[in-house]
Specification:
eight-stranded mixed β-sheet; two-stranded antiparallel sheet; globular; Phosphoribosylglycinamide formyltransferase; Formyl_transf_N_sf; EC 2.1.2.2; Formyl_transf_N; phosphoribosylglycinamide formyltransferase activity
Length: about 220
């Protein structure tokens, strides 16, 4: 059986990308990472991917006059590598509705909060300010409304007394690395199904396939 072809979009160091690459290095994993594309030429993720023998592409957003022309170039770069699925992993660009429509149902993202809470940026600082006792991360399908697409999987972590933003961020990031791999595996196994504005998952014998409590 052929493995799902996955392209990963990155902007920074790419720790979530690295977790996906490590998982896909196992022959039994049902997906393969075929390309890593960055909008920043100096993104640390590019070197990580190259060391793993994965093709890398730079589509520098600064070289384009507006968001639409950048997204057109990004779309062309993706179609050159023919992925079945595109994973956003710290990709710090807001995509146009047209781009998202072109990849509808084949574009997923990981967000560092338990959606629908704390959409957007600075999620850890906002969680601390709100006094929540649980924080976490969410893998979701990308839709035109930011951080609002159907939820595939979530992981929760405790917010501890004395936590600062860095401590909480580190705890969430460790959960992200596990959750994104789990969600990609479910998708690649054909166990994820879009049903309107919700995701249904065939969990099989794993009742916690889409929910993770960390640690």
């Amino acid at each position: 059986m052929s493995r799902l072809r996955v392209a990963v979009l990155v902007s920074g160091r790419g720790s979530n990308m690295a977790a996906l690459i490590d998982a896909a290095a196992e022959p039994a994993f049902p997906a393969e990472i075929v390309a890593v594309i960055s909008n920043r030429p100096n993104a640390g993720a590019l070197a990580v991917a190259a060391r793993a023998g994965i093709a890398t592409v730079v589509v520098d957003h600064k070289a384009y006059a507006d968001r639409a022309t950048f997204d057109a170039a990004l779309d062309a770069a993706l179609r050159d590598v023919e992925p079945d699925l595109v994973c956003l992993a710290g990709f710090m660009r807001i995509l146009t509705d047209g781009f998202i429509a072109g990849w509808a149902g084949r574009l997923i993202n990981i967000h560092p909060a338990l959606l629908p809470s704390f959409k957007g940026l600075d999620t850890h600082a906002r969680a601390l300010a709100a006094g929540v006792k649980l924080h976490g991360c969410t893998v979701h399908v990308v839709t035109p409304e930011m951080d609002s697409g159907p939820i595939i999987a979530q992981a929760a972590v405790p917010v501890l007394e004395g936590d600062d933003e860095d401590a909480l961020a580190a705890r969430v990031l460790a959960a992200e690395h596990l959750l994104y791999v789990r969600a990609l595996k479910l998708w690649a196994q054909g166990r994820v199904r879009l049903d309107g504005d919700r995701v249904k998952v065939d969990a099989g014998d794993d009742a916690h396939a889409t929910a993770l409590i960390w640690p």
